[in-house]
């Protein structure tokens, strides 16, 4: 897959990040999101692949682009039949979040990125637009920590696996009322909590890299982001578990269906018969080959944000491949017209 999709997916996330970064700090989250979607789709539709969006924009608000089920790739171009034979192309499934952290972009805060994950057909869990309880941790704790255990127990296990005290541990949690008890428990156990307003994909993946000073992600975020995080963690060998949350009362946002009962029905209709199942990274991103790509929109723990200069911009991306077993940081200078100079630092 690396050979077919190659460096092109880097350009897909770069283009989305650049488009969105133009709206950084402008207080318009919908525009920051929309331009990222358009740019991502435009570049994606130049790739010689037969792609299908399995995780995309607004399942519920019937988004017009990059919606679940949308076909993407070169064959979607006008007059494609004259130059494109779909049967010659690799069939792949794609999970996208063109602007992960729309609020972060709109308010000029750290941690937003354009992100996607790719696998062969059927290789990514088509998560519903539900919430997901998540646990991410470094590779050394993989299969030792467990989402079914309490935060206190997991911190103890993490401490043993990482040979550092619980006090030396930093846990990222989304700053939401639903996490009040979790935050208290983590603090009582002795660990330190880093509260984030948005952007739990970045937090989850950061656990796999030492030096980020992020040792775990705990709590409830969105399920689609859970699958994207799992794709990266699967390639990196980090620990990731997710459990769907279908009871609106647990999250208290009223954003996931009318009732627990109707959500359970919906899961059943999707073929999910065990709604309480705990999925690990290899189950959420089960494909033989998994590719992950992200480009920083605003600066983050893993990547720089987009930096504009006269006539161009500089981006930093992260591309992770299960095939080549690489985590590649890509630093790119984009020339929009004739820049006065190419800025190195
Ligand atoms: O921050 C997030 C928002 O993503 P986006 O809409 O693409 O900008 C994600 O990282 C979170 O996973 C998630 O969407 C969030 O936790 C949803 O929870 P809530 O804000 O409480 O509804
Ligand atoms: Mn998101
Ligand atoms: Mn988004």
From TrEMBL:
<protein>
    <recommendedName>
        <fullName>D-fructose 1,6-bisphosphatase class 2/sedoheptulose 1,7-bisphosphatase</fullName>
        <ecNumber>3.1.3.11</ecNumber>
        <ecNumber>3.1.3.37</ecNumber>
    </recommendedName>
</protein>
<comment type="similarity">
    <text>Belongs to the FBPase class 2 family.</text>
</comment>
<keyword id="KW-0119">Carbohydrate metabolism</keyword>
<keyword id="KW-0113">Calvin cycle</keyword>
<keyword id="KW-0378">Hydrolase</keyword>
<comment type="function">
    <text>Catalyzes the hydrolysis of fructose 1,6-bisphosphate (Fru 1,6-P2) and sedoheptulose 1,7-bisphosphate (Sed 1,7-P2) to fructose 6-phosphate and sedoheptulose 7-phosphate, respectively.</text>
</comment>
<dbReference type="Pfam" id="PF03320">
    <property type="entry name" value="FBPase_glpX"/>
</dbReference>
<keyword id="KW-0479">Metal-binding</keyword>
<dbReference type="InterPro" id="IPR004464">
    <property type="entry name" value="FBPase_class-2/SBPase"/>
</dbReference>
<keyword id="KW-0464">Manganese</keyword>
<dbReference type="GO" id="GO:0042132">
    <property type="term" value="F:fructose 1,6-bisphosphate 1-phosphatase activity"/>
</dbReference>
<comment type="pathway">
    <text>Carbohydrate biosynthesis; Calvin cycle.</text>
</comment>
<comment type="subunit">
    <text>Homotetramer.</text>
</comment>
């Amino acid at each position: 897959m690396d050979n077919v999709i190659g460096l092109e997916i880097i350009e897909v996330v770069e283009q989305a990040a650049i488009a969105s970064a133009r709206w950084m700090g402008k207080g318009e989250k919908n525009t920051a999101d929309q331009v990222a979607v358009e740019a991502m789709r435009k570049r994606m539709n130049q790739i010689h692949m037969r792609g299908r969006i399995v995780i995309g924009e607004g399942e519920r608000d019937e988004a017009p682009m990059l919606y679940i089920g949308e076909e993407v790739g070169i064959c979607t171009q006008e007059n494609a039949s004259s130059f494109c034979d779909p049967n010659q192309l690799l069939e792949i499934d794609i999970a996208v979040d063109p602007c992960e952290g729309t609020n972060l972009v709109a308010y000029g805060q750290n941690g937003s990125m354009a992100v996607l994950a790719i696998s062969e057909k059927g290789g990514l869990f088509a998560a519903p637009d539900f919430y997901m309880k998540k646990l991410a941790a470094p590779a050394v704790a993989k299969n030792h920590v467990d989402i079914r255990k309490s935060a206190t127990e997991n911190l103890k296990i993490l401490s043993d696996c990482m040979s550092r005290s619980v006090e030396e541990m930093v846990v990222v949690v989304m700053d939401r009322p639903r996490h009040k008890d979790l935050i208290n428990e983590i603090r009582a156990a002795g660990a330190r909590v880093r509260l984030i307003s948005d952007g739990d994909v970045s937090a989850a993946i950061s656990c796999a890299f030492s030096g980020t000073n992020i040792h775990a992600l705990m709590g409830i975020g969105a399920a689609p982001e859970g699958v994207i995080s799992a794709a990266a963690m699967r390639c990196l060998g980090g620990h990731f578990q997710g459990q769907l949350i279908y009871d609106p009362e647990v999250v208290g946002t009223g954003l996931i269906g009318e009732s627990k009962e109707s959500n359970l029905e919906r899961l059943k209709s999707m073929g999910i018969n065990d709604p309480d199942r705990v999925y690990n990274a290899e189950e959420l991103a089960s494909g033989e080959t998994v590719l992950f790509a992200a480009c920083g929109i605003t600066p983050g723990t893993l990547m720089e944000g987009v930096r504009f200069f006269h006539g161009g911009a500089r981006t930093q991306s992260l591309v992770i491949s299960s095939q080549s077993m690489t985590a590649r940081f890509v630093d790119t200078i984009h020339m929009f017209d004739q820049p006065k100079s190419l800025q190195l630092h």
